[in-house]
Design a protein that fits this description.
The protein has 12 helices and 11 strands. It has 3 domains: about 80 residues, Arc Repressor Mutant, subunit A (Orthogonal Bundle); about 140 residues, Periplasmic binding protein-like II (D-Maltodextrin-Binding Protein, domain 2, 3-Layer(aba) Sandwich); about 100 residues, 3-Layer(aba) Sandwich (D-Maltodextrin-Binding Protein, domain 2). About 35% of the residues are buried. The chain is of the alpha/beta class. The chain starts with 8 loop residues before the first helix and ends in a 5-residue tail after the last helix. The chain is elongated and about 75 Å long.
């Protein structure tokens, strides 16, 4: 292992440029160095890393396998160093041009991104967001929480770090409207045991709440297909004899166009809670604290509708007329009470 005291930090900047540009001349232009100086730095890097890094291929250069592995690590390391020295005691969203990095599932992106964009446009017009897709089988480690500003995922996924719960959803059973086992848009337990099951898989060894509900009912489902996210599951089920469990917002979006039905079952009600996670070392970053507050505001619009974003939860003395629904499609009173109760319970003990 190299002694960090012997390593010139400027070499990391050169390494990033060389790996990105794959040209000593272009790398020199990127970092303000002459081509001979970059060549000398590359020689030092080759000695330190015991690897050629660049291999000539005709008139161009290719990265070695080790260089390919190093490239994202070097980029992330420089990003973190930049954050360290750019961290200011104050953060003004109205004038900031910060680029935030958010990892989230396809379901979260589909649910929150448009509302989030509207809030950012109004409060922080020069900021931007780079989304990274969080797939079902991808475990999230403390290192990942350093690479991203925040990660948004379900609370049962076992993600380390600090968190704030954002919004809730009900998991519902969906199936093709032509499924022969449906009786009055309902499946019995024996149907759930016999029919093929389309399963959404989170990280390894993480049991989803829908699978937990099936297990509690004594059902070991016949898994016919596994998927890394909720959003593609309705497309897999259409026209087949499979069934699956998805958040109700996904079912509302795709059931009618794809010829699916939300099937009643004897299983107990399952509530999915999505939360924002971050590394504890970032808690005092004013920009991150602002971002979390914006994500909470976004989630409240998603959960209850625009009129509930300012006062949450809405006072029980101000019910809306019976029969009206929120943006999510839930009956307003039930959604507000159930969602507020679930999120309030989840947020108990959570501190920013």
């Amino acid at each position: 292992m190299n002694d960090l005291r012997r390593i010139d930090a400027n070499l990391v900047v050169v390494l990033d440029a060389v790996l990105r540009e794959r040209s000593l001349t272009r790398a020199g232009l990127a970092v303000g160095m002459s081509q001979p100086a970059v060549s000398g730095a590359l020689a030092k890097l080759r000695a330190l890393l015991d690897d050629q890094l660049l291999i000539r291929n005709g008139r161009s250069f290719d990265l070695t396998p080790k260089a390919e592995r190093l490239q994202p690590l070097v980029r992330d390391a420089l990003r973190e160093v930049g954050r360290t020295f750019n961290l200011r005691p104050m953060f003004d969203p109205a004038t900031s041009d910060r680029r935030f990095h958010i990892w989230a599932s396809d379901y979260v992106l589909a649910t929150m991104s448009s509302t989030l964009r509207g809030i950012l446009r109004d409060e922080a017009p020069d900021t931007s967001v780079e989304f990274g897709t969080l797939t079902g089988q991808q475990p999230v480690s403390p290192v990942d929480l350093l690479r991203a500003d925040v990660v948004i995922s379900s609370v049962n996924r076992g993600i380390p770090g600090k968190r704030q719960s954002l919004f809730s959803d009900s998991l519902v059973c969906i199936a093709s409207a032509e499924n022969p086992r449906l009786r009055g848009a309902r499946f019995e337990l024996e149907d759930l045991a016999d029919l093929p099951y389309a399963q959404v898989v989170f990280a390894e060894n993480v049991i989803t709440i829908s699978d937990d509900a099936l297990s509690a009912a004594g059902i070991e489902p016949r898994v016919a297909m596994t998927l890394p996210g909720f959003l593609s599951l309705p497309f897999m089920i259409q026209g087949t004899d499979m069934y699956g469990m998805v958040p109700s917002r996904v079912a509302e979006l795709y059931a009618e166009p794809l010829g699916l039905v939300v099937a009643d079952t004897p299983l107990p009600h399952s509530t999915l809670i999505e939360a924002v996670f971050w590394h504890p070392s970032k808690t005092n970053d004013p920009a991150l604290r602002w971002l979390v507050s914006v994500l909470r505001k976004t989630a409240e619009v998603v959960e209850f509708g625009t009129e509930f974003a300012e006062v949450w939860p809405a006072p029980p003395s101000q019910p809306r007329p019976s029969g009206q629904t929120t943006r999510s499609g839930y009956p307003t009173d039930a959604s507000r009470r159930g969602g507020a109760t679930a999120i309030a319970a989840a947020r108990s003990g959570e501190e920013l």
